[in-house]
Structure formats: structure tokens, C-alpha cells
Design brief:
Number of strands: 10
Order of helices and strands: HHHHHHHEEHEEHEEHHEEHEEH
Structural class: alpha+beta
Radius of gyration: 29 Å
Shape: elongated
Helix content: 40-55%
């Protein structure tokens, strides 16, 4: 069962881990490394070779294991809020267990040194044991431990201040030097992410409107294509800037061109093999459909782009969203989604074309809609809300 199908039928938000060979293989690799180390230290033949082999196997297992975990956490979307909460609690429990482990060591030390038992000669340190100078190796180990913790704290604060306060562009430009997945000439079969929720929400919301997904017939990957009339040039450039600044398309601004005697603007994302699931969810036999997971990815920003794509103000009736290409069941699903997720009063209406339907966000919900999506609307598209 594919990830998309599993998500549709899974009635809980927790991550059921897929069978993986890496834990078992990594444990055998670590055993090989430990045996090799013992053989090397005791001068056995080929002990050093076995140690190196075990180290390389352990390193390979860790890389492959971490790769799968990162894939699950990013573009597969398996690390929901509940899963992240569980991971946080797990790390907290691990830290508590480490605290008590060190507490037991210190307790044993102070107990034996302050009241030496008869079994150790009633003296501290016990006879025959040479005590290390605390200002030599122990001091060095303490400095290394504290400095590593300080370094990790600095990295976390830097990440928090720059990522979560919106200073993303400089970091993305810098990351292109070490993360080649979003370079123009990188192989699409090697582009597997990572994709955070924001870029997926932006792309999937646009697919509700005029954007469409194109899958390479050779199976190398999928890209998302954007098509705008020259009248909406400013909006097209705005969408392009959002996507290109995140490293998902060329930074070269799209230029107007003529097609079918019309002046339009075209651009697309890079081709990602990890976008194939989006194509397979939105297209059945070449016909665009509404995937069931759309509720998860339709955010206020996504709703704003959907309305800037396909919305318009209708006097005395509210905002109309053109959903002509979808079936009545799909349009009704979207209408109910807007009601349940954003508390908007919506209705479904037939258009003048046979078997075509549209959604109306009623006039009474217009103020709530404006408050919800206004931060994401650009000035040239504000006429869509009257």
C-alpha cells in the first residue's frame, strides 16, 4: 500500500514504522567493529582490517538509516505533531535516565570516599589504586563536554532565530552549496527533498487552481507548472519569487510569451522524483481529482492563493471560486472543508455549463475571509475580495 493510500485509511496520527533492515544490519556492523577493536588492541592478525571494515559498515548503516528517517519526517509527512511530541518526550526521558545514571556514579563515589567500607581496606582511595590528577585528563574531558553542549546550544539558537523569524533566503542560498537537491542541473531521480510543510502546502494549494503537475513519461520525476495571463504578471512574479527563494525553481524571472495569440507567463518547479506522489494523488487516468489529504495542506496562505487563482467577487453574493473542472462530489467536499476548517459559510452552485459547479463563500462570511487571508494577498489581487 502506498503512503497516500495508507494515510487515507489510517484513523490515527501516529507513525507505524515500515520494516527496515538498517537496525539489524547496523547492530551487526557495530559488533564487527567491537570485535575488530578487541583483536587490534591484543595484536591479532587482521584485527585492524576488521576494525576498519566494522567502522565503515556502521557508518554506512547510520547514513542509510538516517536517510530513511529524514525522508519520513519531511516529504512523506509521517512525523505529525503527535509523533514529534512523542519524540520530544522520549528525548526528555533519555536525559532524565542519564542524570540518574551519573547520580548513581557520584553517589557511589561519595559513599565510598566519605565512609570507606572494610571490603576496600577502610581507606580512600583503596590501596594499590593510583588516583588521576583532576586537573589533567578529567579537566580536559569536562572542557570538551561543556564546549560541545555550548556549541549545540549556539547552533540551535542560530537556527531558531533565522528560520522561524523569516530569514530563510540567506540560509537557503548558503545551503545550496552543500545540499545539491535544488540545483538546476541536478538529476531529478536524486531529488528526494527535504520538503517542509510550507512548500508542500504552497504547491498543493496551487494545484487546486490553475497550476498543474507534469510527470516525466520516463518516470524520472514530476514538476509543478504555473500558467498565468499577462494581466496577472505581478502575481505570477510574486508566486515565482516564493518558490525560487526556497530553491525549488530557477531564480531567473519568467518573461511574457505568446501562445495561441495570447500573451501569458509560464514557469515551473524543478523536477523531483519525490513529487510523484503528488501527481498520483491529483491525477487519475489524466483527469485532475481532489485528493482526500487536501484538508491537511490547505492553510490560510494556500486559501489566499486559491482565491487569487480562481476567485472573484460577486456583487451582493460574496466570493465565487471557480471549480468547474471537478465533479459535484469533489466540489461539495471542498465546500464542506471550507466550512469545517475555516468556519466559512459556503454553498455549491451549478454554472451555465452542464455538469460544472462552483463554490460561493457567502457575503456574511466575507469579513471573516478577508481577516483570514489578507496577510497573504498582494495589492494587485485585492480586487478579488472587492
Amino acid at each position: 500500500m502506498t503512503n497516500i493510500n495508507r494515510k487515507q485509511f489510517q484513523a490515527f496520527p501516529y507513525h507505524l514504522v515500515e520494516p527496515s533492515p538498517w537496525p539489524l544490519l547496523t547492530s551487526f556492523a557495530m559488533l564487527t567493529m567491537a570485535v575488530g577493536a578487541v583483536m587490534y588492541f591484543h595484536g591479532f592478525t587482521h584485527g585492524g582490517n576488521l576494525l576498519i571494515l566494522g567502522f565503515l559498515l556502521t557508518l554506512s548503516g547510520m547514513i542509510l538509516w538516517f536517510r530513511d528517517v529524514i525522508a519520513e519526517a519531511t516529504y512523506l509527512g509521517d512525523h505529525t505533531k503527535e509523533v514529534q511530541s512523542g519524540l520530544t518526550i522520549g528525548v526528555a526521558l533519555f536525559i532524565v535516565s542519564e542524570i540518574f545514571a551519573f547520580l548513581s556514579i557520584f553517589w557511589a563515589f561519595f559513599h565510598s570516599s566519605l565512609a570507606p567500607a572494610i571490603e576496600i581496606g577502610a581507606s580512600w582511595p583503596p590501596f594499590g589504586i593510583e588516583v588521576l590528577d583532576p586537573f589533567a585528563i578529567p579537566l580536559l574531558n569536562t572542557i570538551l563536554l561543556l564546549s560541545s553542549g555550548d556549541c549545540l546550544t549556539w547552533i540551535f539558537e542560530f537556527y531558531y532565530k533565522n528560520i522561524w523569524t523569516g530569514r530563510v533566503l540567506d540560509l537557503v542560498v548558503a545551503s545550496n552549496l552543500v545540499l545539491p537537491f535544488n540545483l538546476p542541473r541536478y538529476r531529478s531521480t536524486s531529488r528526494i527533498g527535504p520538503h517542509n510543510f510550507n512548500i508542500l502546502s504552497l504547491l498543493i494549494s496551487h494545484l487546486l487552481g490553475d497550476a498543474y503537475a507534469y510527470k516525466d513519461p520516463r518516470g524520472h520525476g514530476t514538476n509543478i507548472r504555473f500558467y498565468y495571463s499577462i494581466i496577472n504578471l505581478n502575481y505570477a512574479l510574486y508566486v515565482h519569487s516564493l518558490i525560487s527563494e526556497l530553491g525549488y525553481s530557477s531564480s531567473v524571472k519568467p518573461s511574457p510569451l505568446f501562445r495561441d495569440k495570447r500573451q501569458i507567463v509560464l514557469f515551473n518547479t524543478y523536477t523531483f522524483s519525490s513529487f510523484n506522489w503528488i501527481y498520483e494523488a491529483f491525477y487519475i487516468n489524466g483527469v485532475k481529482v481532489i485528493p482526500h489529504f487536501i484538508e491537511k495542506y490547505l492553510t490560510p496562505q494556500g486559501l489566499a492563493h486559491w482565491i487569487m487563482d480562481d476567485g472573484c467577487i460577486v456583487k451582493d453574493r460574496g466570493v465565487k471560486i471557480a471549480t468547474n473542472s471537478y465533479t459535484y462530489t469533489e466540489v461539495l467536499f471542498l465546500s464542506l472543508l471550507l466550512q469545517s476548517k475555516f468556519s466559512l459559510n459556503t454553498t455549491v452552485h451549478k454554472t451555465q455549463q452542464e455538469n460544472q459547479f462552483c463554490i460561493y463563500i457567502k457575503k456574511g462570511s466575507l469579513s471573516a475571509l478577508i481577516e483570514l487571508i489578507k496577510p497573504f494577498m498582494i495589492p494587485t489581487m485585492s480586487y478579488k475580495l472587492g
